[in-house]
Amino acid sequence: MKRRDFLRDVLFAGGGLALSPAALSTLAAQGPDPSAAFGATLVRGLVEKNGASFQPVRVPLPHVSDGLEAVIRLDNATVSRQTVPAGANELEVLISAVESPRTAKISLEITGAVTEWDVALKPVRRVLIYVLSHSHNDIGYTDLQANVEVKQMQNLLAGIELARKTADYPEGARFVWNLECMWSADLFMHRMSSADQESFRDAVKEGWVALNGMYANTLTGLCRPEELIRLFRYGTKLADQFGVKLDSAMISDVPGFTWGTSTAMAQAGIRYFSAAPNWFDRIGSLMQVWQDKPFWWVSPSGREKLLVWVPWTGYAMSHVVGKATEKWVGDYQERLDEVKFPYDISYVRWSGHGDNAVPDPQISEFVKYWNATYTWPKFKISSTSEAFSSFEKKHGKELPEFQGDLTPYWADGAGSSALETALNRNSADRLVQAAALFAVRDPAAYPADAFEDAWRNVLLYSEHTWGAWNSVSDSENAVVKDQWDVKRSFAVNGDIQSHELVKRALMLPVRKGSFPAARNSLDVDIYNTVSWQRSGLVLLPRELSSKANWLFGLTKFRPSPRVVSRWARANRSCPRFRLRHPRPCWTTASCTCAWMKRRAALSNSSAKASPETLRTPRTANS
Ligand SMILES: [Zn+2]
C-alpha cells in the first residue's frame, strides 16, 4: 500500500492519528537533509574530546567570500573563530554538552555583520537504539501474489548480500536482515536451488539473517485454536533444521492480536513479540495505548508471558522519514522526551520504502557514520531477539504485566468474503479431526506433507491482505479480480485438502488389536476427536440402519488395551463409551484424547518427525 502517499493527505486531514500533532509535524517536515536554512541547529549527539562532552551546533553561512574570519558566540561568549572555507554553507562549532534543556543565543559575525538566532539546547539521551531491518510482507494487496513471492525471495538474497558486504563494518553497523515472517523462508526453501538454501542457512547461523517465528502477518482473530499453533510450526521446524534458537516473532501492519496468540507463541518457545501496526490507517487506539510501552503479555492460563513492544510509528518509520539523518536522531529523542520514555534501550523498525520493500543499505551507512562520530545515542542493527533480550536483561523486571485480549481490529473485514471465511475456519477444524483420526486408526500412516500443504492454505487465507488496494474504488479491475482469485483459492484448496485427509484417515484399515473386532459389516466406529468428555446425539445414515438394529443406551466401555495405555498417561479419569446395538452388532464409540493421539501420530508416523515435533504445543482443545 502506498502509505507514504496516503500519509501526506491524512496528516493534514488530521483524522485518526496515533501521534501527537507536534511529533507528527516534526516527522513530516523531515526532508532528505534538514539544512541550516531554518537557523542555527543543535545536533543531538554527544561528542567526546579530551575527557569532556560536547554537542555540535550548525550555523548557516550567508553568501560570503572564502577566507573571511567568522566569529561564533554562544550567549555573547566567543566559542569559535574560524576562517570560512571555500564553498561552505554552514559552520560547525562544538559547545559544552548541556544536562538540561534551555534556550541560548547563537550569533555569527563576519566582517562586522552579526546574525543572531535562538537555539534550543537539549541534553543528549544516552540510549542504545536497536534497528530491526525487514521488509513488510503483504502477500497481495499492493501487487499480485506471484510477484510478491518473487520479490520476497529476492529480498532474502539481497539481505544476505548486504550483510556480506557490511560484515567488516564496525559492530552495530553490520547489516542484519530480519525475516519478518516464515512464509518467505518456506517459499525460499521450496523453490530456490540447493546452493541458495545453503547460503540461507549459513547466513542464519552467521547472524546475518534472523528468523522470526510467525508464518505470516495474520488476522489472528480469524484463526481457529489449532491454526494459531500452526502459525509457529514452520518457524520452529526451520530453526531446528538450521540448528538455531528461535525466540522472537514479528507482526506488521495488523492492529490487534487475539489473546490465544500469546499461548501459541509461548508454547512454540517464543518470548519476544515485536508488534508493529501501520501507524495511522484503521488501527483503532492500539498505537495510542501501546506505542513505546513495552510490557509482559500474560497468557490466559497465567503460566506464560511474552515481552510485547510496539515501536514508535509501528513498522512505518522508514516510510515516513525517508532516510536516516542527524535530524531524525534528534526527532527520535524528542519523541522519547515527549512520552517520558524511562529506559535506556529502545528500538525502531526499518522496513525500507513501502511494502514488500527491498533491504535498505542506507541504514548501515548511516549507523556507521553516526556511531563513529557520536558517543550517544548509539545505534545497533540487530535481530529482534538480540534487541529484546538485551532490553529484557536490563529492564525486564521493571515492566508491567497485562492479561487480556489485544482485540484484533481488522477481522471484521473478512465478513466481506463470508463464504470463504467460513470454509477456511471449517477446514482448520476438519484438519484437527483428520489428524486425530490418523492417530487413532494408524499413527504411522500420518501424511505429514499433505497436512502441511493443507495448513499452509488455511494460514494463507487468514493472512492480513484482503483484496487489493483498489478493490473498493475499482472492484472490476483485472488486478483486483486476479488477486481475489488467488486469495480465494487458499480457502477452496484448504477445504478440498481437509476433506480428502478425513477420507484418507477413514479409509485406513484399523490396526489389529486396536479395537474390538467388528461383529458384522454394520458396525460403526464413532470417534470423539476432542480431548474432553462429551455427550450428544449421534446420527447414523439411513443406509447403516436395518430393521433389526437400534440403539438402546450409552454405557461405560472398556477400551482396547493400546488406547488405554496411551490414554491412561494423559488422563486416567477419561471415560469411554460404547453405543450398543442389541443384535446382532456392536457399535463402538471411543473417547480419544486428541492431543495424545496427535503426539503419537506425529512421533510415530513420519520421517519428518524431530525432537521439536514432540514439543509441538498442545492444541487449545486440550
Ligand atoms: Zn500489510
Descriptive report:
It is a single chain. The protein is 37% helix and 18% strand. It has 622 residues and is α/β, with parallel strands linked by helices. The strands form six sheets. The chain has a five-stranded mixed β-sheet. It has three domains: 3-121, Sandwich (Immunoglobulin-like); 128-403, Glycoside hydrolase 38, N terminal domain (7-stranded beta/alpha barrel, Alpha-Beta Barrel); 414-507, Substrate Binding Domain Of Dnak, Chain:A, Domain 2, CATH 1.20.1270. Residues 136, 138, 217, 253, 355, 464 line the site of zinc ion (ZN).
Terminal Cα separation, in Å?
A: 40 Å
Biggest sheet descriptor: 5 strands, mixed
Number of separate helices: 19
Number of domains: 3
Q: For this structure, what is the CATH homologous superfamily of the largest domain?
A: Glycoside hydrolase 38, N terminal domain
In the CATH classification, which architecture of the largest domain applies? Alpha-Beta Barrel
Rounded radius of gyration (Å):
30 Å
With strands numbered from the N-terminus, the spatial order across the biggest sheet is: 12-13-15-14-18
The bound ligands are: zinc ion
CATH class membership of the largest domain: Alpha Beta
Classify the beta-strand content into a percent band: 15-25%
Could you list the spans in which at least 5 consecutive residues all have pLDDT below 50? Answer: 1-37, 550-622
Q: Roughly what is the average pLDDT, rounded to an integer?
A: 82
In total, how many beta strands?
Answer: 22
Overall spatial form? elongated
Portion in helices: 25-40%
Helix/strand class = alpha/beta
Question: Might you state the CATH topology name of the largest domain?
Answer: 7-stranded beta/alpha barrel
